[in-house]
């Protein structure tokens, strides 16, 4: 199946999901997708994400290079249909070397403060989502207020334990849920959504000239996207909310085309800054830009959006 997800807003890039045998070429600055049923041409400058989910997809090197030059996140899925890797532009900013230098030389106190801000936002968003789902107040605002610099007391873990213990309590299809990377349903849906969110975050960071390998908290030498894993944390409840909605709407537990299409829609989901609202993929760019400014000393705080309008959570 060949799916294009887009909106009427010009500022939002398209998301392409290709799930069958296809040949992908380029001609006249357009991506030409040929399948057994049809041939489509899409301007490459309009594409933000290209998700390839079939073992017999041919992608030409010229097409790949042109996609990367236009800062398209190219996502490859494995045999389980989960995103397994991505290609990103490593030369997307005019002062790339200077930005890398500032990022590499960032002080430990700065990184600890940035991580504190990130975890405060994550816990706050988890609490708001739980309130939306259950209609009951919780202690997550209090937990967020206890986060120290660098989250040295691991309030993130404390909040996560409470969050997942109660998140699916109202669901009739889940008796006891355990959040696991390779766990049972709905872990498969969460994993797919998080992988898409990770790719979108990595794309935004790369577009701001930042090196995804160098995290502010995640430090594994095997993780090429440590910074994306850091910055995506407060946005995770967007995926959780979408998975919860899917579970109310569909009976399917296998990750099929319909559910993947639903999960990809998080990229255009509206979030809220102080004076404006923005699609998620644009908001991630604003957050990434604010991080770059923190590294250069122009800002002291990351610019994270609110995931819900105030009227949605009252």
Largest sheet, spatial ordering of strands: 1-2-6-8-9
Task: State the secondary-structure class.
Answer: alpha/beta
Cα distance spanning the termini: 40 Å
The shape is globular
Low-pLDDT residue intervals, each spanning 5 or more residues? 6-10
Radius of gyration: 20 Å
Number of strands: 11
Summarize the structure.
This protein is α/β, with parallel strands linked by helices and 314 residues long. The protein is 42% helix and 16% strand. The strands form three sheets. A five-stranded mixed β-sheet has the order 1-2-6-8-9, sandwiched between helices.
Characterise this structure.
It contains eleven helices and eleven strands. Helix 3 (108-134) runs parallel beside helix 5 (155-166), helix 6 (187-207) packs across helix 9 (257-264) and helix 6 (187-207) packs across helix 10. Strand 1 (2-5) and strand 2 (14-18) form a beta hairpin. The chain is globular, with a radius of gyration of 20 Å. The longest helix has 27 residues, at 108-134. It has 314 residues and is α/β, with parallel strands linked by helices. The chain has a five-stranded mixed sheet with strand order 1-2-6-8-9, sandwiched between helices. It has a four-stranded mixed sheet with strand order 5-4-3-7.
